């Protein structure tokens, strides 16, 4: 089951305090980016963040799930209705992730 565009837009709006939030359709669901850096996935109307140790203490619940079969484990974020909480999680996740690698020109 794919995510609804309404849910995707809701997540974008909820995370907007962290920076420029953009989604890209991937494999029937969505990758979600902040300031050009991918920080999570939206799959089946659920939000998943890349796991980082910097974010773990901020989580209200520590649940690791696979967003789709064969995927690595991500933090499953059940509480998507708190704008400040999500923005803080996104900002800290992006801060902890490595810098984006420049694309090689062909």
Task: Write structural notes for this entry.
By secondary structure, the chain is an alpha+beta fold. The protein has helices at about 5-15, 85-95; strands spanning about 20-25, 30-35, 35-45, 45-50, 65, 75. It has a six-stranded antiparallel beta sheet.
Task: Give me the strand/helix succession.
Answer: HEEEEEEH
Q: Give the helix/strand class.
A: alpha+beta
The main β sheet shows up as: 6 strands, antiparallel
- The CA-CA distance between the termini, in Å, is 36 Å
User: What is the topology, as strand order, of the major beta sheet?
Assistant: 1-2-3-4-6-5
Average residue pLDDT: 93
The number of strands is 6
Total domains, how many?
Answer: 1
Percentage of residues assigned to helices: 10-25%
CATH topology: Yope Regulator, Chain: A
> Quick one: CATH superfamily?
YgaC/TfoX-N like chaperone
Shape: globular
> Over all CA atoms, what is the radius of gyration?
13 Å
Poorly predicted regions are: none
Sheet-strand content, in percent, reads 25-35%
Please tell me the CATH architecture by its name: 2-Layer Sandwich
């Amino acid at each position: 089951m794919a995510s609804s565009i309404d849910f995707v837009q809701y997540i974008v709006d909820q995370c907007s305090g962290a920076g420029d939030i953009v989604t890209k359709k991937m494999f029937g669901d969505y990758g979600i980016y902040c300031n050009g850096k991918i920080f999570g996935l939206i799959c089946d109307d659920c939000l998943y963040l890349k796991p980082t140790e910097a974010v773990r203490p901020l989580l209200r619940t520590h649940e690791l799930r696979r967003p789709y079969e064969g995927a690595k484990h991500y933090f499953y974020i059940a509480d998507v209705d708190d704008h400040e909480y999500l923005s803080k999680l996104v900002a800290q996740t992006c801060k902890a992730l490595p810098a984006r690698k420049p694309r090689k020109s062909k």
